[in-house]
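Hey,
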Amino acid sequence: MKQTDDYLLRQIQTVADMIARAAGLRLEGSPDEARAVLEQAYGVLLAGQTALIRRLDAGTAASLLGSPERILMLARLFEEESELDGNPALRERTIELTREALRRDPENDEAKVLLAKWSAP
C-alpha cells in the first residue's frame, strides 16, 4: 500500500469517527458540541478549504476532493449537519455528492447503499 493510500484511509477513519461522535452528541441533546465536532471534521477532511468547498457545486467540490472515498465522507458530513440543523439544502447536497462519488466509481457499493438511503422519501 502506498503511503498516500494509508494517509487517505487514516483521514477517512478519523472523520468517520468524528461524525459518529457528533451524531452521539446530537442524540444526547448537545447540539453545540456536535456542531463543534463537525467543524473539526470538516477541517480534517478539507484542510482549510471548508468555506470554499461549501460554496462550490457538487461536481467542482468532488473534483477538488479527488477520491470517491473523500467525496462520500463530505456527503456524510453534510448528512450529519442536515440532521443537526434540519436543513433540506444540506440533504440535497448530500445526495448530489453521493451521485458524484458513484459517477467516479460506478462499482462503489457504499455509494450505492447511501444513495438509496438518502434518496428515499
